Structure formats: structure tokens, C-alpha cells
Amino acid sequence: MLRLFLALYVLYVTAATSPLLQRMTFTEKETAMKRLPLPGHHAPVQIVLQGDPDIVIAAGQKQLNSFNFQNPQKTRVEIEVLWTECVGNGPPQRLKAKRDCNYNITVVHKREEDNQVFLCGTNGKETLCCDMNLSEQTPRCLPSEKMKMIKDSIREFVIKEGEPFALVDSLESDLYITYSGSQEYVGIHKFGKNRVAPTRHNKEQHYVGLVLSRQRDPENSKVYAFYRERVRERGLDSEMWLPFVTRVCTADLGGPKNVLQFSWTSQMNARLFCGDADSGQHFSELIDVAAVHADKWQDTRFYALFRNEWGMSAVCVYTIQDIEHVFTNSTFRDADGQSSRPRECVADSTKIQQNILRMIEANSEMEQWVRPVNNSGPLLSNHHSYTRIHVHGSLDNSDSHHTVLFLSLNNGGIHKVMQNKSQTFVIAEYQPFNHRTHIVSISLHASSRKLYVSSRNELVQLNVANCAQYGDSCELCVLARDPYCGWNGTHCTPETDGTLQDLTHGNHAICMSSSKLQLPRKVSSPRLGATATHADEAKRSVTLPPETKYFLQCPVSSHHAQYTWRHLESNTSCSSREQRCLLLIDSMGPEQAGTYTCVSEEMGFSRVLAQYQLELKSKAAGRPSSPLVWLCLMAVLIKSLS
Fold this sequence. Notes:
The protein is mainly beta.
């Protein structure tokens, strides 16, 4: 137990002082945030982004709500869901309910066409699915012809709120959706022309992600689902949860009449490993997953968010290729004689031999675990407790792959993280809410770089490409290492084509070597040891009576920088974790007079953030500070550190 505690403490200290600490923190004071209240007392089912980045649809339990962030004062537009099965014929103003239709919206899928959505709702007994055209004055929820098979097969199924799903939109559409819990129907369900369900088992499973991988040959297309499974018999050294990935073929029709009829014959399951085997660090509770699709299906990556029993989080990355390697080559766990079992998708699963189907029915778990890409460890692990993950993959100026991750914190904050082949870097922490809350969803409008974050009662729009917030110099722009921002010769801009960036190292020396940047600059003194200094504040003159107590304040921007107060030959360091670097003049005297300079230093780049010229007032003109003054100064200190 002592060794475990020490390992936990070392990991906490390392995470708190490493580059995995967010470089900057942004509240509404530092970056633009727009907040809109959500109606009702229930979290939105889903946030649906439109082509216009300022128009957002929030699906509530009973209706859709349209918000316009371009004009936040404008009243939200409430769109009632008129289920066709629940209303009669005739003009909308004459529609009357034929029965009690208390349906809660459980699935919202935005189609490729503008203003078109696919919806499902359940009343606890049955489910209805339909299409809506939001551009109509009074949208009706009408089942289209290609949705007819889904509508008919899903009627008696109850969709649980928050379950992952995937819609195959084709001539004959299919809906894949999971069912979590410990009931007999737990697993992946397929609705459409061919209804396929999971086999019955007594395991408790909770699904966090479901991803469709379509291939040129439709017969080989697959669906991957990620879930955590509760350990029924826990030993002292075992985890409460085990993480899994499972796979089914979209062409699977189920078995013949006697064995696995209407149940998956292609399903295989494999454990996921996230941690460091050498140090014994292990993350076993799977929290969330996000996919970044690639041109080659096998290169598609899954970013999985984990947590351990001490509340620490980690992100591990897996590829379809690595997952398929396990499903293709691993032996089956606790099963002999299954070498003849098919590993690939088959055209007609009803023709699989019954002895093979008995093997499939008995066991589908692989012996080998799926490990992260290149057998690496977590790309991110620290003491924060993350609750959601959203991933945006793109290319930087040198055509090398990088990814931006948005991770929600359990206090309502958002970490923006840059990840490339060599390392992970926490760019910033956004605090979209002015109070502690639980984040329900994260969505990014990719082209505009607008991030939408929702709690149970608020929807917030953030501009995560507000590059001016990093500063007005090339060095500060490059040090930010933000894929969405680059230096164009005059300012830090979201138009990154042809601009200066160094996402891998944040090497600001490229600013000096660039011919674009022949700008006048003040060379720093050798003692500061930097390429340039920039005084952000003019020198302030302060005259203090003898024995006065006084605080000098210096703003903290980058938490990766070192902050130092310089006075004569003395240097006093500050913690970069706080929002202010404070220096207390405990008792003003001749020795305390002179120039005080607050300097930040980050990767060799220094700048002067504040300067004070303290002068001693004559004794005749002043008197020692009163206890009231001291209490006021303490209040300033406490407010700065809070």
C-alpha cells in the first residue's frame, strides 16, 4: 500500500509540473464566450450543428430548440416534434392527438442535406423513428421510404438515453445502436431490412462509442463498439471495470433457424490495454471514445479516454489495423479447436456450419489484448479527471499529422490539447462556465473553429482559434504551439497557410531567422539570457512611507514560463500556477527602494511584464501602515490566489 501511495504521489507531482500542465488559462475575460440558457431541467439529448456556425439545434427531451449565436438576444425557436403515428390527417392547425404520445427523443442524426435530421423517440414501451425537414414552417416527423425497414423493426425496442449509434444512409438504411446495462438485451442491435441482436449473456456492459467503418466492398464493412464490463468477482488486486472493443460485420444476417438465428455470428471481443506495463501503471475504466477517420480504413484511429480507481485520466490511441490484427491472429480465450472458425466477414452467415456456430455461441473473446498504436503508452496521463473527449484531426504546414483534442474536466473546464507523432502538449484550459458544473457534450464546428459546450442548463460557444489571446509578438504566437494559429508577419492569425508555426518544439528562433520579420526589437541584457524583451507595462512609480507593507503585482499568462522579480542583485521566483505573481514588501525601508522588474522566461524567450520604481517617503511625511491597510493587502493576495 505504501509503494502504491508513493507511486501515485510521484505521478501526481510529475503531472503537475510537466508540459501536461495547461500552458494558458482562458476565462470570459480573456476570450469571447457566448452563453445561452437551455430550456427545462434536463440535459440536452444532443447538439446538432448546421452549416452556419452560429445556428445550433439543441435536442431536448420533447422538442428541438434552434439557437442563433449571431443574435443571442433573439428568442430561441422551439420546434415541436409531431410524430406521424400520434396525429391525425389534415392541416397542422387541426392536428389532434389520437392517443397519449409521451415520447422522449433518444436519437438525433444530422443528415448530409441541410436542415434534414433523423429522429427516434421512445415512451418506455415502444420506439418511433422518422425524418424531419427543419426548414418547413411546421415540420412533421415523417418516416421516409428508405427508413421504413428501420421504423418497422425498431417499434418494439426501447432505446436508452445516451446510447451510441450509427446510421447507414443508403437505399435500404440500417440503424446500429447499443443497449447498456445488465439486462438480457445488452450489446449491439441492428435495425433495418435484417434485424440482428446480441446473444444473451449475464454480463454488465456499458457502451461509450460505436463507429462504422465502410469499405469499398460493402460485404467487408464493419461496426466497432467500445464498452466497459464490470468484474463480477473482484480480488484485492483486480479492477472494477475491464475495457473492451467488439466488432461485427454489417453483412451479418445472423445464423440459421436453430443456432444464433437473428443474432451476431461475426462478433468478436478483445480487451484494451492502456498504461505502462513496466511501471505497473494501468487504466481500466473506459470513459469515452472518439474516432478520426483516415483515407485508408485501416489507419482510422480511436482516441479512448480512460480513468483509474484514483480518478486519474489517460488517453490511449488504437488503430483499426491493430484491432483487426488481434481479431485475425489471436487465439480465443479459454477455447480449444476454434482454428476453423471464420475471422472474416461472410456473404451469407446463415450458411455457416452449425458446429462452427456452436463455437461462436460459446466464446467470442480473444486471448490477446489490443495495445495502443506502435505499442506505445498513453499519449496523455495526469491527475485531472476528464469526462468527455472530442477529437479533430488535420494537417499542419509541413504536411505532418497532428490532432487537436478537447477534453472536459469534472469541474466544467475544457483542455485543448495538441498531439503529433512525437509528443502531447496542453495548449490551454478554457473555463466556459462561471460556476462548477458537469459538461454533457462537446461539439466542434470544424471550419469556423467554434466549439460548443453544453451543461444541463447552458450552451456556450467558444472561439478556439482566437489567436490574438496568445500575444502580439511572433515568439508568443509560436510558443503557443496551437495548430489553429500562425504568425503572418504582423499578428497571430487563424489563417495558418504560409504562416510561421513550430508545433513540435515551439521553437521561437524561427521568428528571428524569417525574412518576413525584420521588425525593430529591443535586445535584452545578457543577464536575462533571452533573444528579446517586451515591456508590457510602463514603469510605475510608487512612493511609500517607512515600514509600509505593499504588494507588487505581475500578471501570469503562460503556466510554462518561470516568473522572477529582480531587484538590485536579488531574484525572487513566483509560482506559475497562480494568476498573479506577487511580491510582498514587508516593511518599506532604504534597502527596499529602487527598481523592481518582473520577468517571464519560457524556452529562452524573456520579456518584462511589470516594472515598479519604489521610493521611500520621508518620515515626516508618512507613518507606518495601519492594521486596516494590512488587511486590505491580504484581501488582494487572497483574491489573486483564488
